[in-house]
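BUG: 3D viewer hangs when loading the predicted structure for this chain

Environment: internal workstation, default settings.
Expected: structure renders.
Actual: progress bar stalls at 90%.

Input used:
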Amino acid sequence: MSAGTRKAAQAALAAEHAAVYGYGVVGGRVADGRRAEAAAAHHAHRARRDALVRTVRGLGGEPVAAQAAYALPFAVPDPAAAVRLAAVLEDRVAGVYSDLVRAAEGPLRREAADAMREAAVRAVRWRGSSVAFPGLAERAREGTGAKTGTAARTGAGGTNGSGATH
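Structure tokens produced before the viewer hung:
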């Protein structure tokens, strides 16, 4: 496998380390009704992390170690914030696995695609709604034609970024 594959696997491993840590926070703050879901996600990320340690070694690398602590993207004082954190963790993991899908081949590529899908599904469950698949939002903007792009560049028509017209 290439150095790019090894680098992408290391990045996925680092993301899994962060997710395992993050789910420790989520599990401590999430409401009782979602605690089992948080525990299941925590176990899934631990399993993926352990598999990636073996993968990185198999690719000839030394697996990146977990940090002692990770900076959270925002404070998590209550169950609602814990749910938001879980969705962010899953989004980040899915994004990193998309890089591994691009870099890998064969069984590793399939495993990365499975991990990406699982993280995306968990993110939707935590969020309660989905987001555009990566690349689709950009494609939708392209489909609006040059009229909006030209208007935006010249300052004529369009929106001011907040949705209001000017």
